[in-house]
């Protein structure tokens, strides 16, 4: 059953063949390990970037502190209506820097919808930074709401404003005009 190898030459050849096979297996294992390590590093980098983007979309958003609506037409329209809206805003807790010039605004009102970017404004860098933006029906301030509110919001009408930060985090505000609006009124909404 088992043969006895008596010649020394044959015994050495078997040992060299085994050594060559062993070295080949070690090389293949080293190459496979290198590929796995590179793939794991790539996946880790990609998952960190995805996690960072997701966090920004949730945390990098604006917070609306208050809204004041004003009747500024002074009787130019048949009924009095709020046509200027001043928003006092800050960045939400945990947010990074937010460049207001890149903030996207969408508005849905009784006349339809409007969307635009603010196009100008400071960069909110500190948690205590506060600023005002004014959206109006004729586009003379930061944004034009004409296609959403026409000549303005009359008593009981609603307007929904969504502010979307450059990273994708958004904040929505519902505004409802009071039932009685007089010439020159300023109303905290």
Automatic annotation (TrEMBL):
Residues 180-189 have a biased composition (Acidic residues). Residues 163-174 have a biased composition (Polar residues). It is found in: Archaeal flagellum. Residues 163-189 are annotated as: Disordered. GO terms for cellular component: archaeal-type flagellum. GO terms for molecular function: structural molecule activity. Keywords: Archaeal flagellum, Cell projection, Cilium, Flagellum, Membrane, Transmembrane, Transmembrane helix. The chain crosses the membrane at residues 12-37. Its main location: other. Coiled coil: none annotated. Pfam families: Flagellin_arch-type. PANTHER family: FLAGELLIN B1 (PTHR35903:SF1). The keyword Transmembrane helix applies. Belongs to the archaeal flagellin family. One of its GO terms (biological process) is archaeal or bacterial-type flagellum-dependent cell motility. This is Flagellin. Flagellin is the subunit protein which polymerizes to form the filaments of archaeal flagella.
């Amino acid at each position: 059953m088992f043969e006895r190898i008596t010649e020394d030459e044959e015994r050495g050849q078997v040992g060299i063949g085994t050594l060559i096979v062993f070295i080949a297996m070690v090389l293949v294992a080293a190459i496979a390990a290198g590929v796995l390590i590179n793939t794991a590093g790539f996946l880790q980098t990609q998952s960190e970037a995805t996690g960072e983007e997701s966090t920004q979309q949730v945390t990098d958003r604006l917070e609306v502190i208050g809204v004041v609506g004003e009747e500024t037409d002074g009787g130019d329209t048949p009924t009095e209506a709020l046509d200027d809206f001043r928003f006092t805003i800050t960045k939400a807790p945990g947010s990074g820097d937010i460049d207001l010039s890149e903030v996207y605004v969408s508005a849905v009102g009784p006349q339809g919808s409007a969307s635009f970017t603010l196009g100008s404004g400071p960069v909110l860098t500190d948690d205590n930074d506060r600023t005002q933006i004014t959206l109006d029906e004729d586009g003379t301030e930061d944004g034009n709401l004409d296609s959403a509110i026409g000549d303005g919001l009359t008593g009981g009408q609603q307007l929904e404003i969504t502010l979307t930060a450059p990273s994708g985090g958004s904040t929505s505000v519902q505004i409802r005009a009071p039932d009685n609006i007089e010439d020159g009124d300023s109303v905290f909404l």
